[in-house]
Each structure stands twice: as structure tokens, then as C-alpha cells.
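Final report, results section. Input specification for complex C-07:
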Amino acid sequence: MILKPFKVTQIKYIVPVTLPILSTIAMNLQTADYLIIIVYFLFVIGVGFLIKRKIKSSNDFLSSSRNIPLWITSLAFISANLGAQEVIGMVASGAKYGIMTVHFYWVGAIFAMVFLGVFMMPFYYGSKARSVPEYLSLRFDEKTRGLNAISFAVMTVFSSGISLYALAKMLEIILKWDFDVSIWIAAGIVMIYTFLGGLTSAVYNEVLQFFLIVLGLSPLVAVALHDAGGWDNIKTQLPPNMTHAWKYMGNADANPMGLHFMSLIFGLGFVMSFGYWCTDFLVVQRAMIARNMGDAQRTPIIAAIPKMLMPIIVVFPGVIAIALMQPALQSKGYTIPIEPDGQINYTMTLPSLIAHYYPTGLLGVGITALMASFMSGMAGNVTAFNAVFTYDIYQAYFVKKKSDKHYLVFGKFVTIAGILISIVTAYIAKGFNNINDFLQLVFGFVNGPLFATFLLGMFWKRTTGHGAFWGLVCGTLAAAATHGLTVAEGKGGWIVPLFEIKSGMGQAFIVAATSWVVNFFTTIFVSLATKPKPDADLRGLVYSLTEKPKYTTDKWYMRIVPLALILLVITIILNIIFF
Amino acid sequence: MYKKLNNLGFVIGAFFTIVSLILFANIFLQGRTDALSIYAASAFFIFGLLMMLKN
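Structure output:
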């Protein structure tokens, strides 16, 4: 789930008023640190060169010819989502909202990933579509595909640029590296390995980046937790609503997120979560390149296992950080940087923990892990962008019947163009502070209603292309209107500020939920008034007209449904433990 | 060797082994005794070797 770096609002009763002002973090890299960074750069570029020899066709370059082993597709599936906004944003959220941040995983990810694997992958994979927009073309029509492809292409390339901007800004703040140099080096390295090896290269590097992020940040969690006196001591230092995930959600005023559990479950747990994990081509693409249908279904389900444990790496450090700032633990000497206006800069929580705890050498590992998360996010966006732009825009609407070599060359050209547009976006983001907020807002408007289209398209054969198209248009307009009529933390209300919502996150959930409902009913009404496709054209695309896959030869623990049920039970147990 | 380099598990193992060797070299050259560096370097080394040997 994409999460923008948080701007800060102060949490009551937690932050001591006597903290020193510390708006910067001092990190001095030594030879060992630089060596580790250089080794990492050499490895990611080396992977590009190794994969290059295997790239013979446009399918190899843009969709890996569906030939990637399960363990790689699974880790790439989760790693494509493990960009810097995720890592740094979730640590910041952990510090700001406490353990409730686990809802982004145990409510806002696992169920949707399991649903994708069990119910939706048979259509994505079985239809032989090369992309999510291409599935929409097969199921509905070209105008629905075009709308989705164009909005997705714009979103991914801008997301890539924002990721690049955030990386350069972070390196400028914590290492005093030149902004321009950071932009061009990071973009250059991503360009080299994606240009050489296409999607396979990006996916392989995502797996390397996954291990680097997990292993690079694990020692930090261990040492910070030990320093804070363990989880039991943290619970005594923080208010109870910072260490309970559900207990205080019956009343929106009683928890740091300002959310009622119903809006969390419907807004995050259903609309936003399913809208992202089940329809965003960036992640679905990793499952679509598996070797067979069984592996394609298992990919998101296996990926849900590390996803379930990810809060240990990206949520707990934030909670630990805020605990270390309490009076009883101030002797440990750690603070999250404080802005001159007295507010905590939560975005700097993870870099400040790394600076505080990691000695020379490990500091290089920590910084490399941060860089890996930025680059992983960028490469994922660029490879999804080049596939959608080549297959669903260029080949679908402009140059239809050319040789495979033509599309391979064009795909490579789009990769370079995507990186260059990302660089331009990064500089625009540098010049206009509000562009990040604006883009996130627009992305939310487009993504919010999307799942309703897929849900109806896959499970109700009466859904028509006109219904899907107008549902998406009306859902997006409804999202914009809801934002324009509500105000939260000073944002929104640009039409008429009719309703006030306590938190920005609550507003985002309400916007998404409204757009979903409007899309859902618009699609139904328009579909009932228009002519559906004949059943023969919908085989393999709709649940009721598709033969269900059977995996009786698999061992029981590799069968889709038992595996999914085990994961769901473990997720529920985790929610109970941290209730 | 080229065949091995085409195996992602082996490449990941090689990366962590090299990183652990840099960390060990840093520990010995700087005379560091902090447990965090030693434990982390050892864990990376074991993980890297296992990944290389198993692939």
C-alpha cells in the first residue's frame, strides 16, 4: 500500500515538552559503509547483465515469459510493495499511531492477498492476459481498458518520480549528499538494470532488496527493543491506546488514528485493501509471471506469510522509538528529530534509529537497505509502466501489427522514457511541495472505485463494458466530490466544507468507500440497461463460466484453500494477541 | 561458475557473504568489540553461506 511520508501532528500526552530541538541527523559514513553501498550497486547492475543474455523477445522483457519460480514471484510480490514510502512511512506511522499501524497488514493486506490468490488469479492467469488492463479489454471493452491503462501508466510513472525525489531528499538530509547527484546515480542504476534485463531483472533485484531490507533492519529492531527494556516495559511506558490494536476502536476519539472500527474494516480492510492488492498491476504482475496456474495462485498466498510478519520490521521500530522518548527512558539518549516549531518529524524515525544504534559497517547496511527500498519501489513502477504502455497503449491503439522485435525495442525505449519522466517528476516535486499531496489525492480518486469493477466483472456475468466504464468514471467523480465536501486536518472541503472528519486517514477511507459504493451501483444500473456479452465470449473470464482449477496431486500444505485458511487463522490469532 | 551466477539464491548468498566479510574486516581493523556488529556479521555470513551452498 502506498503511503506518503507523514507530515507531523503532535500526539498528546506522549511527547515530553523538554526535548531538544534536533531537526537534522548526523551520519558519517566510513570506508566500510561506502564499500557495502558499492557492493550493492555492483550486484544489482550485475544481475541486469546476467539476465540480459536471456532476453530474446518482448515477452521476455515485459512479462518474463511466465517462467519465474514460485519463491521468487512470492518475494517479488511483497517486495514490489516494500518501497521506501512503505518502510519509512510505516515506521513513522508506528511512532505516531502505535501498534494500530498493524491494521495496514493484518486487516489491510492479508485478506485481500488471500482473496486474490484463491478467487482472482484464475481469471488473470487463465485468460492469458499480459496485464490487468488487457484483462479488462477481454472481459469488457477497449474503452474500459484504455481508461485503466492511461490512469495506471500516469500513476506509476509519477509514483516512481516521487520515490526518486524522496530518496534524494533523504540522502541530502541525513548524509549531506548532493540532491542532483543522488537523483542521477539512483535513476541511472535503476535504468541500467531494468533496461538490460527488463521485468526479470527488476524482479530478481526485488528479491535481493527484500532480503537486504529484512536482514538489514532486523538487528535494529533487536537492539532497540532490548534498549527499551522489552515489549512489557514499552507497554508500561506508553498510553494503552498505543499498544492495543482493537481495544480502543469502539470510539473514534479514544484512539490515536481517530477511527471507528467499522470505517477501518470497510474503508481499509475492504475497499482500499482489495482495491490495491487485487487490481494494481504493479503487484499482480508478479503473480502473472509464475510458471503455472497453481504457482500464480500460490504467489500472493505465500507472499502473505512474510507480509504478516513485516510489522516486526516496520511497525515495532516506530513504537519502540516513541517509547524511548518517554521520561523513564530518556537516559538512553534517543529522540526522533524535532522541528523548530516543536513538532516531531516522524518521517525521520527510521533514519534516526539507524543513526543512533548502528555503528560503522552496519550503518552502511542500514543506509543500503533504505536505498534498496527506494530503488525497489522505483524499478517496480517503471517495469509495470513499460508493460502497460507498450501492450495496452502503444500496441492496442497506435501500432498494432509489427514484429516482436519492434515491441522489444519499443519496450526498452519506454523504460528509458519512464526513468526520464521520473527524474522530471522528482524535480517538479522538489519545486512544488504540494505536488506529492496532490498526486496521492488523485491516485486515491482513481484507485478507490477500481475493485468494484473487478468484483462485478469477475463474479457477475451480466456486467457490461458500458457499465464498467461509467461505473469507474462516476466512482472517480464521487471520490473527488466527497473530498471536496469534507474537511480533515485542514485538507479537503474545496467545494463546500460541509462535514468535518477527525483524521486525514479517516477521510481517505470515507472517500474510498463512497467511490466504491457509487461505482458498484452505477455499474449495476448501467449494465442492466445495456446488452451483455454472450456467454461464449466470457469463458475463462467470469467465475460462473470458468472451470475451477483442481490441485488434488499437490501435497495438502501446498493446496490453495488449506494454505489460505491456515493464513487467515494465524492472522486472526495475531489480531487477538494484540487486541 | 556462470551457471551458478544465474541462480538467484546463489547470488543473494554471495552478496551477504561479501557484506559479512566487509563487516568482519571492519571489526578487526578498527578493533571493535560491540556485540551488535559481531552478531550481525556472523548472521549475515551464515545466511550467505547457506544460500550459496543450497543453490
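Residues 8 and 37 of chain B are 26 Å apart (CA to CA). The helical segments of chain B are 2-5, 8-30, 35-54. This concludes the modelling results for the funded period.
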